[in-house]
TrEMBL record:
DNA-binding positions: 29-48
Molecular function via GO: DNA binding
All copies of domain HTH tetR-type, residue ranges: 6-66
Source taxon at top rank: Bacteria
Pfam hit, one: TetR_C_13
InterPro entries found in the cross-reference section: Homeodomain-like_sf (IPR009057), HTH_TetR (IPR001647), Tet_transcr_reg_TetR-rel_C_sf (IPR036271), TetR_C (IPR011075)
Keywords, alphabetical: DNA-binding, Transcription, Transcription regulation
Source species: Alteromonas confluentis
Lineage: Bacteria, Pseudomonadati, Pseudomonadota, Gammaproteobacteria, Alteromonadales
Protein name as annotated: HTH tetR-type domain-containing protein
Secretion signal, residue range per the UniProt entry: none
Amino acid sequence: MPRSAQYDIEEILQQAVDIFLEYSFHGAIMDEIIARTSFNRRGFYLEFGSKQQFLYKVLEHYQTTQLMPVVSELETHQGITAINTFFLRYIPLVYSRGCLLINCVCELGKQDATVREMGRHYLDRLQLDFIGCLEKARLNGEIKVEINIESAALQLTSYVQGFAVNGILAENKEEMVIATEALLTPLQL
């Protein structure tokens, strides 16, 4: 009879999110990953095969457990309110550590097709969700009629990318809230 795993894979993936946010992919050494996840080296390689494959699992976990709950706010397409709520929920996620997915795209996206595809899929989803929210905002009379919705959605999506980096550098969360207000105010009536 095969032995059952002596570890909680979800807990290990969550611990790994913290490690990769702290050290980056290249900066995170296997000894640190093994020590902080209470995984043994043999079990790690049996479960994941490589550090690269492990990263993909960690990114999937991060998207599912941390990023998508925030993005889901946009999928209600409730106009400007949904966009505001998205940013208010995104700030605590990225403040002082950045966004793991965007960090990995910046670090690995040029040479790693899987990371690049994950990032592209995320940004495409964001842009479509922003379009849906802006269309609803236009129907509700919340934004100026002359606003080009696709351009505004692209601008918001680009801002999210930069926001992930700025979250690492910002001195406080209020600075990020002010930046969000400055971005959204010109769109609104």
